[in-house]
Specification:
Chain lengths: ~110, ~120
């Protein structure tokens, strides 16, 4: 199984919006609603930010939103804040009954 | 909210077996709400799903690691464990235990991570 494709890095200024893409295939991202997104600060465990493409867990800011079109899912962060600077990973359930992650995207808040 | 605490040796010799245990607190491992999983992260790299066990004992492994991986569960201790055999330096990573939701396949629960270094 190949990793999902994410941009290595994105950046934005405080208050701006950014979008991180996550491209897979019809056997994972395109075939299921089971796409999730994780935020990871250095030295910490990942934190669930979005599940089932666009749902936010309780406690996650509504500045975080998710969507999907075909084989590509996206995470949008609006009103960027310094605390959003972190690595972000997408994940999808697959037709092989496994889980696959993206390579990760480093978000820099300028 | 369920919490996970991983434990085990931080240093393993090449060709030996890596063994880690995860203790579940705040809920029963037999609740049926989670696939109890192991995920690893090579230094400076992305995440890799290793496999999971359900409380009933059914398992599913990453095909790329399947020949070397065993995940087991001890419901009496509310623990699950990972064994990875014939390790090499390429297995050096932070190993996370995690709970994958059986309802939506997301991963809301993670252990703190254990850095395992394979070196002689």
């Amino acid at each position: 199984q190949s990793a999902l494709t994410q941009p290595a890095s994105v950046s934005g200024s405080p208050g701006q919006s950014i979008t991180i893409s996550c491209t897979g295939t019809s056997s994972d991202v395109g075939g299921y609603k089971y796409v999730s997104w994780y935020q990871q600060h250095p030295g910490k465990a990942p934190k669930l930010m979005i599940y089932e493409v666009s749902n936010r867990p309780s406690g996650v800011s509504n500045r975080f939103s998710g969507s999907k079109s075909g084989n590509t899912a996206s995470l949008t962060i609006s009103g960027l804040q310094a605390e959003d600077e972190a690595d972000y990973y997408c994940s999808s359930y697959t037709s092989s009954s496994t889980w696959v992650f993206g390579g990760g995207t480093k978000l820099t808040v300028l | 909210q369920v919490q996970l605490q991983g434990s085990g040796p931080g240093l393993v010799k090449p060709s030996q077996t890596l063994s880690l245990t995860c203790t579940v607190s705040g809920g029963s491992i037999s609740s049926g709400g989670y696939y109890w999983s192991w995920i690893r992260q090579h230094p400076g790299k992305g995440l890799e799903w290793i496999g999971y066990i359900f409380y009933s004992g059914s398992t599913y492994y990453n095909p790329s690691l399947k020949s070397r991986v065993t995940i087991s569960v001890d419901t009496s201790k509310n623990q699950f464990s990972l064994k990875l055999g014939s390790v090499t330096a390429a297995d050096t990573a932070v190993y996370y235990c995690a709970g994958i939701s059986t309802s939506d396949t997301s991963i809301p629960t993670w252990g703190q991570g254990t850095l395992v270094t394979v070196s002689s």
